[in-house]
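Record filed below.
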Amino acid sequence: SQIVNAGFQLKETKLVGSHVYEPLSEYYIQNREKLQNVILKEYPSHIEKILHKSISKMSELSEERVIDYAIIRADK
């Protein structure tokens, strides 16, 4: 891996996407109306629509384990 090639020794890897993507998308969906009002003060409506679609897709891909976040602990 690139981490090992850079001279690091892997100690631990944790996949934490389910603790990132799913809570974020749930929060956005539950609070979309309030968030829309804030977003629309600064950006055109199509930006919020793109954001909503992106967050929904991100959640779907996380549930299918297509995407994930990893926390990697390594020593040099």
Q: What stands out?
A: The helical segments are 2-5, 21-30, 32-42, 45-63.
